[in-house]
Structure formats: structure tokens, C-alpha cells
């Protein structure tokens, strides 16, 4: 996902184009990592001093619901990143120090599904955590 595609997607789905949403998307377009909601708030307040945490959080969840952002939980708080559409189905290694990600093209569900005979799996999530080469 890139900034232009994200803005176009929002418009196509009938969402209002606002300067705050555009700035949120711009922040993600410059990072290839998960970013904490509180860090997005700090960055956004540089341009919009009166923006509230609730407004930022609502927009982040809207963008995640529309598959423009991906969400995960790190150290008890939500982090977000641009949705990866360059790969097919994949998962991520997430650096616990810097938040950078690397695609993992292996899906453990291929192995797990055989032990779930009779179960209806709606979705799944698989993430690997550790430290990237730059943070070791």
C-alpha cells in the first residue's frame, strides 16, 4: 500500500478526505514498521495541536477495518502499519526494538488445519517476534 492508493481507496469507499486522515496515512507511508497509536498522536499533534487521542484511534481503526492498515498488539498496546499488498498471504517477523517487519511467506495453518478436523476456522494470525539484525 502507498499513500496515493490509500487515499484513492478511502475516496472509492465513500469516506471523506480530511487533512488529518491524509497526514496519518503520510506518516505510515514513510515507515516500514508498526507504529504505536500514541506515536501517531504525537506526530499528528505537530500539525493539528488540538487533535484528540480518540480521533486518532477512531481513524486508525477505520483504516484497519478497511484493510488499509494492519494492526497488532506489542507490549500491551496497539500498533499499526500499512497493509502489505505486495505479497500474497503471509505473516510477519516483528522487531521488538524498532518495530520493523519482514514478511514470512510460510503459513503454519497448512500444518495446523489437519489437527482441526470438524472445526470451522474463520481467520488466523501468526507473528514472530525478536530482534532484527540492525538491533542485535
Automatic annotation (TrEMBL):
Compartments reported by the entry: Cytoplasm
Keywords assigned: Cytoplasm, DNA-binding, Repressor, Transcription, Transcription regulation, Zinc
Pfam families named in the record: FUR
InterPro entries, alphabetized: FUR, Fur_C, WH-like_DNA-bd_sf, WH_DNA-bd_sf
Highest taxon, organism lineage: Bacteria
Family: Belongs to the Fur family.
Name of the protein: Fur family transcriptional regulator
Amino acid at each position: 500500500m502507498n499513500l496515493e492508493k490509500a487515499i484513492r481507496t478511502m475516496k472509492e469507499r465513500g469516506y471523506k478526505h480530511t487533512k488529518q486522515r491524509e497526514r496519518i496515512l503520510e506518516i505510515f507511508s514513510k515507515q516500514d514498521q508498526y507504529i504505536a497509536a500514541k506515536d501517531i498522536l504525537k506526530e499528528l499533534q505537530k500539525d493539528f495541536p488540538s487533535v484528540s487521542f480518540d480521533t486518532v484511534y477512531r481513524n486508525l481503526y477505520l483504516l484497519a477495518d478497511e484493510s488499509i492498515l494492519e494492526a497488532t498488539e506489542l507490549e500491551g498496546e496497539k500498533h499499526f502499519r500499512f497493509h502489505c499488498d505486495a505479497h500474497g498471504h503471509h505473516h510477519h517477523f516483528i522487531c521488538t526494538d524498532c518495530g520493523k517487519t519482514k514478511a514470512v511467506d510460510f503459513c503454519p495453518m497448512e500444518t495446523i488445519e489437519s489437527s482441526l478436523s470438524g472445526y470451522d476456522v474463520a481467520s488466523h494470525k501468526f507473528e514472530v517476534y525478536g530482534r532484527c539484525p540492525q538491533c542485535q
